[in-house]
Each structure stands twice: as structure tokens, then as C-alpha cells.
Fold these 2 entries.
Entry 1:
Amino acid sequence: MAEYWFNIETRQVEVGHRSPWDKLMGPYPTREAAERALSTAHERSDAWDEADREWREE
């Protein structure tokens, strides 16, 4: 089964590990998931930030 990676430097999806690790996000099970890598990371980061704010307020 193919693995998909998002290259943060070129902003392209790669099939298989081809670029240096420090340029990649993944692996992802589908091309579509890899294409959404940055938006998924931003959404998760925002959710974690909100959870931290709520935890500090308690």
C-alpha cells in the first residue's frame, strides 16, 4: 500500500518517502489526507490551544 507525504517546502504530495525527513509531514493513507496536511495540523493546534486555555482557567 502506498504512503503519501506532504512536502512542506514544495507544498506537493509525494508518493513514498523521497525527500529529507525535516521537509515532510506524514505518512498519510491517502493523497487527499496528505493534501490537507497543513489545514489538519492548524485545526489540531487550535484545538490543543483551546484545551490549554480551558485547563488553565479551571
Note: The mean pLDDT is 94.
Entry 2:
Amino acid sequence: MIKTRRVYEQGDPGEKYRILVDKFWPRGISKERADWNEWMREIAPSDELRKWYHHEFSKWDEFRKLYGKELAGKKESIDKLLKLEKEHGTITFLYSSQEKEHNNATALKEFLTKK
């Protein structure tokens, strides 16, 4: 199972393995306060795609398609995520966006769920 959660929100006691899936370190969180197991910045959307999308919801469907194409080229990282899910049963993707439904963690979860 894959869950998503905003990095600034309190974690669930049932979260077994948390992965920050953003390209940039979240503002206002010190390394001492970081409550995730791993940071996989390489799985985040490219700078070009991230800037193009810029959380314009009218571009959401196209963003998911384009991000899916990028993810298809990141086989090693995708395999690692699928392995972590299998090992831990549940993994949580952390993101810093204020948008809870239209963000890269949600798109990544959708992509992996179809695998």
C-alpha cells in the first residue's frame, strides 16, 4: 500500500517507511526534525516539467502523462520503490506542496499503482 502525506503534517503511527519525493528540501524543516527514512529527489519531476505545471490544475492530466513518461525512464528508482513497498507493506510518500490532491506524490502513487 502507498500513502501520501504533506511533510509538515503529523505522521501516522502506522507509517512504516516514509520517503520524501520532492526535489528540494522542505522549507522550515531542519535535518534534525526530518521524520522520514529516505529522500529520493531523483524520483521528482524534472525542473522543466515542475515549472511548466506550476500547480495549474487545468494542466493536471497532461502533467500526469508527462511525469509518467519521465518515471518510465527511471526504472532503477521505480524498482526500488516497489521493493520497499513489498518489504514494508506500506510506504508513505511525503511532499511539501500545499495542494493535497494535485501534486507529484499523488501522481507517483498513481503511476506505481498501475504497475
Note: The first helix runs from residue 47 to 53.
